[in-house]
DNA sequence: CTATTCTATCGTAATCATTTCGATTTGTAA
DNA sequence: TTACAAATCGAAATGATTACGATAGAATAG
């Protein structure tokens, strides 16, 4: 997902271009990992002093609705990362040191088709956490 | 995990017995699934009118520290369930209708040992959501 | 049984993340 | 460039959770 793709999706859905929105997308495109609303606010305040919390949270919600961002919750805080848009369903490894997210080839769901034959599986949550090779060796 | 086991663990760690604590544990032992602080409060108010929020949240935190309860987050709310204490690492299927949690035999981690040979896996999150046979057929 | 000593609880206020609101500004299509 | 819907601001509201000073209660030793 690139910034201009995100802007295009915004426009296609009747939303407007603003510099702030481009900068928010740019922040997540370059972050390559999960970031909090607070971290985004800190980043945005360097370019736009006095930016409203409304702007931060409204856009995070909008971007998540449009599937430009994905989120998870931790310690009562919502964390966001840029969406993958690879088209195919997949999971991630997340580096706890640098925040890098690595897409995984396989999905663990087939492991359970037998054990849960009588159950109706709707969704699943799966993520791995640890250290990427770079962080592990330094 | 039974109520008296939980009370024993409390005492072993220098905490005192109270009827409220026994009732909180009993609530989760019989719930067999995730419940919110608000749901626990509603239950406790039937026996103890005027119970303090402090009591609810302090004990939830304490029980989680002592690993009598486990938690996950959803929509900015923390949900708690009784701990399994089976000794062995395992995951759960969670019924979205009745809240039932079913322990799963297998762990999906082995699926990724090859793909993540250069990575250092620390922890992982995995849970399945859907309908249990009972809720599915009604 | 009673005194002593912590721990638990209450009632309430504070905190933190997030959402909402009325007024104003800005993007964009005609 | 004009008109209008959408975006933003500044600030207040909400909802879940945590914290605090004062009181009540459980455990232990004498």
TrEMBL record, chains A, B:
<comment type="similarity">
    <text>Belongs to the Fur family.</text>
</comment>
<feature type="binding site">
    <location>
        <position position="98"/>
    </location>
    <ligand>
        <name>Zn(2+)</name>
    </ligand>
</feature>
<dbReference type="Pfam" id="PF01475">
    <property type="entry name" value="FUR"/>
</dbReference>
<feature type="binding site">
    <location>
        <position position="89"/>
    </location>
    <ligand>
        <name>Fe cation</name>
    </ligand>
</feature>
<keyword id="KW-0678">Repressor</keyword>
<feature type="binding site">
    <location>
        <position position="95"/>
    </location>
    <ligand>
        <name>Zn(2+)</name>
    </ligand>
</feature>
<dbReference type="InterPro" id="IPR036388">
    <property type="entry name" value="WH-like_DNA-bd_sf"/>
</dbReference>
<dbReference type="GO" id="GO:1900376">
    <property type="term" value="P:regulation of secondary metabolite biosynthetic process"/>
</dbReference>
<feature type="binding site">
    <location>
        <position position="124"/>
    </location>
    <ligand>
        <name>Fe cation</name>
    </ligand>
</feature>
<dbReference type="InterPro" id="IPR002481">
    <property type="entry name" value="FUR"/>
</dbReference>
<dbReference type="GO" id="GO:0008270">
    <property type="term" value="F:zinc ion binding"/>
</dbReference>
<dbReference type="InterPro" id="IPR036390">
    <property type="entry name" value="WH_DNA-bd_sf"/>
</dbReference>
<keyword id="KW-0479">Metal-binding</keyword>
<dbReference type="GO" id="GO:0045892">
    <property type="term" value="P:negative regulation of DNA-templated transcription"/>
</dbReference>
<keyword id="KW-0963">Cytoplasm</keyword>
<dbReference type="InterPro" id="IPR043135">
    <property type="entry name" value="Fur_C"/>
</dbReference>
<protein>
    <submittedName>
        <fullName>Zinc uptake regulator, Fur family</fullName>
    </submittedName>
</protein>
<keyword id="KW-0862">Zinc</keyword>
<keyword id="KW-0804">Transcription</keyword>
<dbReference type="GO" id="GO:0003700">
    <property type="term" value="F:DNA-binding transcription factor activity"/>
</dbReference>
<dbReference type="GO" id="GO:0005737">
    <property type="term" value="C:cytoplasm"/>
</dbReference>
<keyword id="KW-0408">Iron</keyword>
<feature type="binding site">
    <location>
        <position position="135"/>
    </location>
    <ligand>
        <name>Zn(2+)</name>
    </ligand>
</feature>
<keyword id="KW-0805">Transcription regulation</keyword>
<dbReference type="GO" id="GO:0000976">
    <property type="term" value="F:transcription cis-regulatory region binding"/>
</dbReference>
<feature type="binding site">
    <location>
        <position position="132"/>
    </location>
    <ligand>
        <name>Zn(2+)</name>
    </ligand>
</feature>
<keyword id="KW-0238">DNA-binding</keyword>
